[in-house]
């Protein structure tokens, strides 16, 4: 399928149900979910919401971890023509309260394990909790919907100020699954393995929508487990998996390995959400004999914007690849395209790009150029083959004495040490330089590596000026729901007690 999917999620679920077969399996123990069963339950949920008077395109909040019921609710809300408002369960109470209030949701499906969170964050006068057990089939009508109807509302992590509510239509949501399908050549024979939460764009678009559009099936776990990853992957006979760099690093440092049959069956692993350090990628592939395809995506683009080709295509280590199904370019500060090899801002245009930020016209206007390019806020360069190399976030650059330093360079130097499991460089305000460089790492249990040793490693690779003044060894680095390390939170964790944290 070389054209983006037409129609709505309702059309696609009807299509899958009419052909039969298993859509989803659950290694944690729930029974398999066929496309036919999913369509029936989705329709019942859609009818119930319509009967409650929920308007077409109105937000319906979903507070659910990964599970069979979460999929039924997600598809039920989408099937009815409502805006599935995915609430990030680990974003913190203020972000959850903001999303519930800002979305305008009058109803929310709440998992029993999330009732406490809901009660702490929801205004009971404005929003009513629902359970799937409440669903009754009263055979009512549904709203008519089309490809440009609102489908998804997902909030960004809000690293700079308030979270923004990203609105996707049925069209852009399906296109997010399609860009994944064409890049990874997914077919009905494939079974994905999902350990990332579906309240994050990677879990929802790459694995769930990728499965809907390709007609394959998906194994879904409630959460990532280092000890059970390879066993579960083998048990469900998955052919591909989607993870983030921190998971790749944790698997690399664990004792378990896939058996020969699993290694043979798995075509590739997919890495997204943040940069994958080249040394970690090479070590993973050497140890497990499974190729890792590095990709890149955004909430604003239904996940994937770039991907490396599958083997035997050229995978350029250190690059999230080339555009599939959308266009990518590099612009200068005047929003003009720069020559190959020059640094600028990565911009994207295509069918997977969001409609708008909800109730925020200024943010929407400043994110899009006049001719429809979405500004990503990422600094990058593109080579003559179209491969993009991301050098940093515009907002994360460390500016020391007027010089720009990309945290990623420091991360990669730290990851070159075999005992480093997680690493992130960050800026500390400083009177003489404006900002100085520091970093935090998590190291392998039993490692003898010291803070000073890691500083010296960076100096040998990067020179003194770019190297961190301090490397803090922490038990864990702060992460968002996708497993992406949150640099902006490290300074408050290490505080001013730099000397207490040195080893």
Short structural summary:
The chain is an alpha/beta fold and 503 residues long.
Can you describe this structure?
- The chain is built from 16 helices and 25 strands.
- The protein has 503 residues and is of the alpha/beta class.
- Among the domains are: 8-163, Rossmann fold (3-Layer(aba) Sandwich), CATH 3.40.50; 398-501, GMP Synthetase, Chain A, domain 3 (2-Layer Sandwich), CATH 3.30.300.
- The strands form five sheets. Strands 2-1-10-9-11-12-13-14-15 form a nine-stranded mixed beta sheet, sandwiched between helices. A seven-stranded mixed beta sheet has the order 6-5-3-4-7-8-18, sandwiched between helices.
- β21 (398-400) and β22 form a beta hairpin.
- α2 (35-51) crosses α3 (68-79), α4 (93-103) crosses α5 and α6 packs across α7.
- The radius of gyration is 23 Å and the shape is globular.
- Residues 497-503 have low confidence and may be disordered.
CATH superfamily grouping of the domain at 8-163: ANL, N-terminal domain
Oligomer: single chain
Looking across the biggest beta sheet, what order are the strands in?
2-1-10-9-11-12-13-14-15
Mean pLDDT: 94
The helix/strand class is: alpha/beta
Beta strands, count: 25
Weakly predicted, low-confidence segments: 497-503
Distance between the termini: 55 Å
Question: What characterizes the major β-sheet?
Answer: 9 strands, mixed
CATH hierarchy: architecture of the domain at 8-163: 3-Layer(aba) Sandwich
Shape: globular
């Amino acid at each position: 399928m070389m054209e983006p999917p037409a129609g709505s999620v309702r059309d696609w679920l009807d299509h899958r149900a009419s052909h039969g077969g298993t859509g989803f399996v659950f290694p944690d123990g729930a029974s398999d979910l066929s496309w036919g069963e999913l369509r029936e339950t989705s329709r019942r949920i859609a009818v119930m919401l319509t009967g409650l008077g929920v308007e077409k395109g109105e937000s319906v909040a979903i507070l659910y971890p990964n599970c069979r019921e979460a999929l039924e609710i997600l598809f039920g809300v989408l099937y009815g023509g409502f805006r599935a408002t995915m609430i990030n369960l680990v974003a913190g109470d203020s972000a959850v309260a903001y999303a519930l209030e800002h979305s305008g949701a009058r109803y929310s499906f709440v998992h029993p394990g999330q009732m406490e969170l809901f009660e702490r964050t929801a205004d009971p006068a404005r929003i009513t909790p629902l359970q799937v057990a409440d669903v009754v089939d009263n055979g009512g009508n549904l709203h008519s919907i089309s490809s440009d109807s609102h489908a998804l509302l997902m909030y960004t992590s809000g690293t700079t100020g308030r979270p923004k509510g990203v609105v996707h239509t049925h069209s852009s949501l399906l296109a997010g699954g399609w860009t994944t399908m064409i890049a990874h050549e997914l077919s009905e024979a494939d079974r994905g393995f999902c350990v990332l939460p579906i309240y994050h764009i990677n879990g929802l678009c790459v694995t769930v929508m990728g499965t809907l559009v390709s007609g394959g099936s998906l194994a879904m776990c409630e959460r990532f487990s280092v000890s059970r990853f390879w066993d579960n992957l083998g048990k469900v006979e998955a052919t591909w998996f989607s993870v983030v760099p921190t998971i790749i690093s944790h698997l690399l440092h664990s004792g378990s390995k896939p058996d020969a049959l699993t290694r043979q069956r798995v075509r590739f692993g997919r890495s997204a959400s943040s940069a994958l350090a080249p040394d970690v990628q090479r070590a993973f592939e050497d140890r497990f004999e499974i190729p890792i395809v590095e990709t890149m995506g955004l909430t604003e683009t239904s996940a994937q914007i770039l991907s490396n080709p599958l083997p035997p295509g050229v995978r350029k280590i250190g690059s999230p690849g080339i555009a599939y199904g959308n266009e990518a370019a590099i612009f200068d500060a005047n929003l003009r395209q720069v020559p190959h090899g020059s640094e600028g801002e990565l911009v994207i245009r295509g069918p997977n790009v969001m409609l708008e930020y909800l109730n925020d016209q200024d943010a929407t206007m400043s994110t899009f150029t006049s001719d429809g390019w979405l500004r990503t806020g990422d600094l990058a360069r593109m080579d003559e083959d179209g491969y993009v190399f991301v050098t940093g976030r515009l907002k994360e650059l460390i500016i020391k004495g007027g010089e720009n330093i990309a945290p990623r360079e420091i991360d990669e130097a730290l990851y070159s040490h075999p005992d480093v499991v997680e690493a992130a460089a960050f800026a500390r305000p400083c009177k003489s330089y404006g900002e100085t460089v520091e970093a935090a790492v998590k190291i392998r249990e039993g490692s003898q590596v010291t803070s000073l040793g890691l500083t010296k490693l960076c100096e040998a690779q990067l020179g003194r000026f770019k190297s961190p003044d301090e490397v803090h060894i922490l038990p864990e680095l702060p992460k968002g729901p996708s497993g992406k390390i949150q640099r902006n939170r490290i300074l408050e964790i290490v505080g001013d007690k730099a000397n207490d944290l040195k080893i």
